[in-house]
Design brief:
Blueprint: H1 9-14, E1 24-31, H2 34-43, E2 50-57, E3 76-82, H3 92-109, E4 115-117, E5 121-124, E6 127-138, E7 143-152, H4 163-166, H5 182-203, H6 209-214, E8 222-227, E9 230-239, E10 245-248, E11 254-257, E12 261-264
Parallel strand pairs: 1-2
Antiparallel strand pairs: 2-3, 3-7, 4-5, 5-6, 6-7, 8-9, 8-12, 9-10, 10-11
Helix pairs in contact: 3-5
Bound molecules: biotin.
């Protein structure tokens, strides 16, 4: 069943149990990008916890300058405004923490265990279900704000996916979870994000990293990492304290990857 109903904010907010996130919702039928709007809010001084959510994005953005295909009513596209008390060097921890929360939420709706593909893709059966785009503004010592943008494919049938992503993307519907309520999913996700974000702030990234690694689908596998024009091939080991991917090259040396595209090499 394809849901074509607008989101009910009353349903989401009525039962939302969070400490910091979801304090206010800015809802749009259509927007260019929720991340872009959330950035404007942040620059105008909006407080932490506000959510920008849209039924449809005409210019949804993905990592590495890609687009995020955002058809109306079937999926979720939203951005959260965060003002974490972290040093700028630790900003990537926010993204990895969000990936843990997102994977936990997905696991509550499907039997199939979700995997995290570094840094923050959520995969089901090897295909991409959800992505996270974080954008931050920092000075030398402080993070001013982080915009945490999340897109999740829920009731999105394969035949509606553009051909360019059809073989690589999936949705909850495609793995057998039919007609999941977008309100229930979003409420649960904001609660999981709130909880994980609280753990990060109270106990530090050491309390999150093992949970991330437990869902890391490529641990121990031979991977190919594309970084701009450079390619690194080696064995994926895990992540370090700053969220960099550690890859052991063919000389047995550990390389830190801070940005790039990682794929498993079939052996
Ligand atoms: C990726 O995996 O490339 C990240 C995708 C992030 C998409 C979300 S949808 C809501 C928010 N607004 C955007 O323009 N992008 C993010």
């Amino acid at each position: 069943m394809i849901q074509n109903n607008p989101l009910s904010l009353d349903d989401i907010q009525g039962e939302l149990e969070t400490k910091r996130l979801g304090t206010r919702f800015h809802y749009f039928q259509e927007i260019d990008s929720t991340n872009r709007y959330a950035r404007r809010l942040a620059e105008a001084g909006a407080p932490e916890g506000e959510v920008v959510i849209a039924e449809y994005q005409s210019g949804g953005r993905g990592r590495l300058g890609r687009n995020w295909f955002s058809p109306p009513y079937c999926n979720l596209y939203f951005s959260l405004l965060l003002r974490p008390a972290l040093a700028p060097v630790h900003a990537p921890q926010i993204t990895l923490t969000a990936a843990v929360a997102l994977a936990d939420t997905v696991a509550a709706f499907v039997a199939e265990p979700p995997a995290i593909k570094w840094p923050n893709d959520i995969l089901l059966q090897g295909k991409k279900l959800a992505g996270i785009l974080t954008e931050s503004s920092c000075d030398a010592k402080h993070i001013e704000f982080v915009i945490l943008g999340i897109g999740v494919n829920l009731n999105f049938p394969r035949e509606r996916m553009p051909e360019s992503i059809r073989d690589r993307a999936t949705s909850l519907m495609e793995v057998g979870a039919q007609g999941v309520s977008r309100e229930n999913f979003l409420r649960r996700l904001i609660q999981d994000l709130d909880r994980c974000y609280g753990v990060l702030e109270d106990f530090g990234f050491d309390a999150i990293a093992p949970r991330w690694e437990a869902r890391f689908g490529l641990k121990g596998k031979t991977v190919r990492v594309e970084m701009g024009g450079d390619v690194l091939i080696g064995q994926a080991v895990g992540i370090d304290h700053d969220g960099a991917l550690l890859v052991e090259d063919d000389r047995g040396e550990r390389q830190r990857v801070v940005a790039g595209d990682v794929t498993a090499i079939e052996e």
